[in-house]
């Protein structure tokens, strides 16, 4: 019996290993009557939590998947790097360099990018070099900044939110003041459709109160282990069964989409939790 159980466990691990060799492409449609007519049908690929991982040589597997989608734009929801291994940023950079030749890219920061930028001098210099190279390739970094896209008479605003380190804390999760986001990125414009790239989904209520129409997040890695009917098991803050783990959440006209992410970090495994290449189509209701 023990041998049978052991064989079944090994088979399960082998299946999970094979499943994780290639991200799952998920397609999500979000409808809104606030979306301008000219942006109806805009297709976005969302990349989150790559953590320097490569699918095949030079991420050729991932690039082919993105090309098959033919997105209008690519949005980065943070943590393409690993804070403790900044010298490996070339993996993420080479991927984004290839993609930048084909698609507009708007890059929101994750906690790993933010930590690198504020680390001791040598790490900060490496991150600056990474950021400078991205900018040179036409990639727009949104570190508490926004960009407004215009098509005919329609306007769409993309904002990258970089919250401070305590909001990623493990011992306690502080409450976010009501005016915190506005103080960082300015007021939410009521006259256009607003996309907020907010790496940490834990503050969904604040993002809703801010007025974002669509929030794109990551960070939780789908909960590492996903259990049917229960969802993700563990968050990076070491909270069991986090409320916001993966998928779609809606409240008061706002929608948050949380990517399960592409790479691995502290815990180097995924069970029932295939890496995700999220595709989002926004449509006018």
Can you describe what's shown?
- InterPro entries: Calcineurin-like_PHP (IPR004843), Metallo-depent_PP-like (IPR029052), Metallophosphoesterase_sf (IPR051158).
- This is Phosphoesterase.
- With 285 residues, this protein is an alpha/beta fold.
- It has a single domain, classed as Metallo-dependent phosphatases (Purple Acid Phosphatase, chain A, domain 2, 4-Layer Sandwich), CATH 3.60.21.10.
- Helices cover 27% and strands 26% of the residues.
- The protein has seven helices and 14 strands.
- The strands form three sheets. The chain has a six-stranded mixed β-sheet with strand order 1-14-2-3-4-5. Strands 6-7-8-9-13-12 form a six-stranded mixed β-sheet. A two-stranded antiparallel ribbon has the order 10-11.
- A hairpin with a 3-residue loop joins β10 and β11.
- α4 packs across α5.
- The chain starts with a helix and ends with a strand.
- The model has no long low-confidence stretch (mean pLDDT 90).
